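Hi support team,

I submitted a single chain yesterday and got back a structure, but I'm not sure I'm reading the token output correctly. Could someone confirm the output below corresponds to the sequence I sent? I've pasted both exactly as they appear in my results page.

Thanks,
R.
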Amino acid sequence: MRLHVVAGGLDLSDVGIGDSIAIQGACMTVIAMTADSFDVEVSRESLDKTVGLERAGRVNLEKALRLADRLGGHLVSGHVDGLGEVVHFAPVGESHELRIRAPRELGRYLAYKGSVVVNGVSLTVNRVSDEADGCVFSINLIPHTVEVTTLQELKPGSRVNLEIDLIARYVERMLSASGAEQ
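Hi R., thanks for writing in. Yes, this is the structure output for that exact sequence:
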């Protein structure tokens, strides 16, 4: 499927054909572009493993980090690891609390004050609770994040794209391969 994305306020002046842009947290390759929009081709695999790409609507966008750029957040790759479900989203004072149920297999990567990506937005985990039907984690969203992302549209039952912490992924691989010859 070919998607045409109007980039809104995202500056595309440094983007070229072949560059990566994450859409709702899923990394896609730019195949055509104008000054304020770009096109990508989305595979059946991506459509089957993500949400938010199957119909027209607002999306979160993030250009790929260049190694010479300043790092102002968490390390993310734009590879969706699984889908979660919103179980709670409500204001708490000036902020919002977002609680998501992640599949059990992703729960081991979620840690207090660790990183998680929800629909392409890198966030910090405030609480983690292992439950019989998965792992529920809580995030505090500041007003700015709610205002400038599609997270404001979430409600209980919404499905979301999840990307686990990049470092946790490598730590698990190193530990699972620790018995292998070096």
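A quick pointer for reading it: The chain has two domains: 2-63, 82-167. Let us know if anything else looks off.

Best,
Support desk
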